[in-house]
């Protein structure tokens, strides 16, 4: 005894649906993608359909569509990383080269000569610039972990968009390398594109601000020697690299910043506070001394609320700064002589 299929109902075995208007079977269409793939114009003028971590169809230089999963396996993991991401994370240069080299092998027989080379280059670029669910490329991963050799390898195939793409936290590969203190990687990326030094992250933080805050003197020196104009950029709260280095007590960084631009000592944040106001909140009397040598009048400058550095120091119970610049650490009970 057979069973009829009512109009509009699905045939579960065949995956077909009966149209209620025509009584004809038609094939079920997959639901539309929840995200729209990004269109990128390649150097050749052809459009690449680059996926956003989970979409795999790419339009290559020849106009053919190919599945990136055929070339780089998408690993089911915490952040939907590809094998290339994981190899970059491990610092496994051999694996990175093997993954990229397999593209050539799998393309053999499809084209020849210059067409083959162009096709492989387009596919390899799409693979290298693929992002995981955090919006991070394999280059970002290598830059964050400090794997210089991997960074150099991936730079050959990275696009401008891939190099400047920010992850969910607002960092791009250059900024995360500066923030982590990877001086050699910062140098290599700057040689590739000097304009990277002016990138900004969340709250308008620049790479030199991030490096200065974390105490990475090597990175700060590289950035200052490349383009010191980034010192003019402040965070959204008005604090610059000197404010934050002074607050953390990074003596060598404070010295480097003041050598490059002594006027930084006079710059105010949105509260009207100078780097000296920030320094007395910390515990480094040496930083206080450096700032007062740069500009002795700083000790008399009030913020928007009328507080001088001495007022702030007393209220915060960090240090007592007198006119002769003798400072005493109240919290630790240790006296440090900072007489100018």
In a nutshell, what does this entry contain?
With 340 residues, the protein is mostly helical. The protein has 15 helices and 10 strands.
Give a quick set of tags describing it.
Serine Threonine Protein Phosphatase 5, Tetratricopeptide repeat, 340 residues, 40% helix, elongated, ANK repeat, three-stranded antiparallel sheet, disordered N terminus, 10 strands, cell membrane, disordered C terminus, mainly alpha, Ankyrin_rpt, 15 helices
Outline the secondary-structure elements:
Elements: E1 10-11, E2 16-18, E3 25-27, E4 38-41, E5 47-50, E6 57-59, E7 65-67, H1 83-90, H2 93-107, H3 113-128, H4 138-145, H5 148-155, H6 160-164, H7 173-180, H8 183-192, H9 207-214, H10 217-226, H11 241-248, H12 251-260, H13 275-279, H14 285-294, H15 309-316, E8 319-321, E9 327-329, E10 335-336
Antiparallel strand pairs: 1-2, 2-3, 4-5, 6-7, 8-9, 9-10
Helix pairs in contact: 1-2, 1-4, 2-3, 4-5, 4-7, 5-8, 7-8, 7-9, 8-10, 9-10, 9-11, 10-12, 11-12, 12-14
